[in-house]
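Appendix B. Worked example

We walk through a single record from start to finish. Start with the input: the chain for Heme oxygenase-like protein, Cladonia borealis, length 342.
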Amino acid sequence: MSSPPPSLDPQGHIQAKPLPPLSHTINSTTQPTHHSLNTLILTLLPLSLPPHTPNPTLYARGISHILPIYSTFEAESKSLLHLWEAGKMGDWDEKGEAGKGDGRRRRRREVVMQGLKKLWIPELERAGRLRGDLERLGKSGRSEFDTTGKEAVAGPKLRALTRHIEEVTGRKPHLLLAYMWLLYMALFSGGRYIRARLREAGAEFWMGGESEKGGDIDEVLSFWTFEGQEDEEDLKADLKQRFAEMEKRLTGQEREEVVQEATYIMDSMVGVVEEIAETVGGEDLCHKAAGRSLERHNRAEIGEPSLWWLGLKHVLPMGMFELITGASKSVMMGIEPLYEKV
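Next comes the structure step. The output line below is what the pipeline stores for this chain.
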């Protein structure tokens, strides 16, 4: 009985053993940073909602720092696809496997760009929705922050991230996979929890007088919603399937670079959220939270709450400690992870 033929990578080289799905590798590699980011988000979220604030100003100020990330990533993606379709991409400035000879470089470019074309789902785009949310919040008069479509004055960490996106994705378009997976899958998973908490604030908080005219809360929260037939599950499944198909086109080096880029993204996102913490006045608290994952407490690896945890309870406004505890347990137990676990 003959043995099955060996599996080959996109370059025709024999693979020693099947690799785990790229999505699994990204998630497992970035998991520690996920915990720090989750803790920061869960700490900041209640500060932007009642009863801790009477209007959406803090929410608008904080979320405006996220807009440049999505707008830069999505603009670069669409620009590259447009240039490729028009035959104007030129040669890649790469080194390594994909850069050995003009012929190979052109072939790799075609393989990757064909895959990215199939991977791109216009319904997932968020920048336009978030910009519209901010504009509507400004027009409603509920936000004291200038939300007339202008993005926030970027801090150094946010500037570094957006500049990095512009610099590297043009040379290595396969790195866009890391952004598509992390930025969109986050909204499908933990984004649901955040959306529910935002909606609980009520129409009066978000819309003010507009709510009496029949205004819908989701008109200012469209960033968190997707148009899908089954509560966005169809879009989520479509993205997963397309991502898995795109993964087959990558070389070993390209795959490693995507994972490295995912690590960079997550580290950068922690820095950006820390800058948001400074904006909403919670810098000290969030730096403490980032340095001490809630995971140990919620997995009951210690019999009694730590002194730090007890101290945090007395620092936080009334009710916030219980809120973070409950939400964090849900996150750590995988009930509503802020980032997708596959």
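Two observations about the output. Residues 91-101, 288-339 have pLDDT under 50 and may be disordered. The domain at 23-332 is CATH 1.20.910.10 (Heme Oxygenase; Chain A).
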